[in-house]
Amino acid sequence: MYAYILRRLLLIVPTLFVIMVVNFVVIQAAPGGPIDQIIAELQGFAPGALERVSGSAGDPGSDAGSSRASRGLPPEFLAELEKQFGFDKPAHERFAMMMVDYLTFDFGTSYFTDRTVIDLIKEKLPVSISLGLWTTVITYLVAIPLGIRKAVREGSRFDVWTSGILFAGYAIPNFLFAVLLIILFAGGQFLDWFPLRGLVSENFAQMSFWEKVVDYFWHLALPLTALIVGAFTTLTMLTKNSFLDEINKQYVVTARQKGLGERQVLYGHVFRNAMLIVIAGFPSAFISILFTSSLFVEVIFSLDGLGALGFEAALNRDYPVMFATLYIFTLLGLVMGLIGDLMYVAVDPRIDFDAREG
User: Which of 260, 251, 254, 274 shows the shortest CA–CA distance to 152?
Assistant: First the structure.
């Protein structure tokens, strides 16, 4: 097992490098780089509008320079901007310098906020951690028992109507459901029970411990509901189908013939095998919810998290923030993939990755 872990850790390095190279090339080729964004703002354009005006590429070159010159910008000013942002160096040299810095987790400074990227990520992380962690935990706590019950009572009325509710929730996009929750419960058209913005109240520091806990979850109630509704369906049906596959196997029939009770059969024999793929998928599910599912919810509920940070960085072509978040998310995703494999072994010690690879 140790050899497998070592191989997976070593594989992270080339995988991460290739992902960074591909994204670096794609982003450099995209129109409207950070310098173009600054020029557009100076000339009164909205952020992200310059590519519609000039069509210039993100990486400064002769075409971009002539386009800027045609708008009456002094060459000295352009040269100073390129030097300030490091675009006076070739692309391959900039990439090499960036990767060397990233090895020590030095992500530089944001182009547009004049703050270090690591400070920005630390500031936004509590919101995304709150959304990702609680969504994943609540989803697993509800979906697994529900999936087991649906498997045991397959074909019953309970199975049919719960499936209808689950698939209806799955069909509604989380951002659309978030808007519906605001209309119903956040002062939109009907009730005004929940706050519409922020992770905590303004007077949070003056509250007692339990008041802080209540206030924290009061603010999270609607965003978590919007994220959880769609997540329930996949995990519940995965749990149900996993249990159905195991319930029909011979060892379950044998256990019942020996006189074991239904609960003992389900949780003493079926659970470990059926839950293998469900429990082992927890790390990747958390990463998926943390980094990909919360952007619209963050924007709708005015939660300043990593999703909103990445979106704003993409609009402004804030390369340090874009590449740093990509690097961190990719690294976490690869590490969580390894943790998922280790959880397979923890759930079922019979699994031997070394033997499979051998």
Answer: 274
Residue 121 neighbours by CB under 8 Å, 6+ apart: 107, 306, 309, 324, 325, 328
pLDDT higher than 80, residue 355: no
User: What's the rounded Cα separation, in Å, for the pair 30 and 53?
Assistant: 14
Amino acid at 215: D
pTM exceeds 0.85, yes or no:
no
**The residue type at 263:** R
Residues 5-18: tens digit of each pLDDT: 888 888 999 999 99
Please state, in angstroms and rounded to a whole number, the distance separating the CA atoms of residues 219 and 237.
29
What pLDDT, on a 0 to 100 scale, did the predictor assign at position 181?
87
Q: Which residues pair with 116 in a beta bridge?
A: 109
Cα 182–chain centre separation: 23
pLDDT at residue 260 tops 90: no
Percent of the chain beyond pLDDT 90? 8
Confidence grade of residue 70 (pLDDT, cut at 50, 70, 90): very low
What would the 3-class secondary structure string for the chain be?
Answer: CHHHHHHHHHHHHHHHHHHHHHHHHHHHHCECCHHHHHHHHHCCCCCCCHHHHCCCECCCCHHHHHHHHHCCCCHHHHHHHHHHHCCCCCHHHHHHHHHHHHHCCCCCECCCCCCEHHHHHHHHHHHHHHHHHHHHHHHHHHHHHHHHHHHHCCCCHHHHHHHHHHHHHHHCCHHHHHHHHHHHHECCCCCECCCCCCCCCCCHHHCCHHHHHHHHHHHHHHHHHHHHHHHHHHHHHHHHHHHHHHHCCHHHHHHHHCCCCHHHHHHHHHHHHHCHHHHHCHHHHHHHHHHHCCHHHHHHCCCCCHHHHHHHHHHHCCHHHHHHHHHHHHHHHHHHHHHHHHHHHHHCCCCCHHHHHC
- Angstrom distance (rounded) from CA 240 to CA 329: 31
- Contacts made by residues 308-311, CB under 8 angstroms, sequence distance 24+: 308/124, 309/120, 309/121, 309/124
Of 246, 257, 256, nearest to 348 by C-alpha is: 246
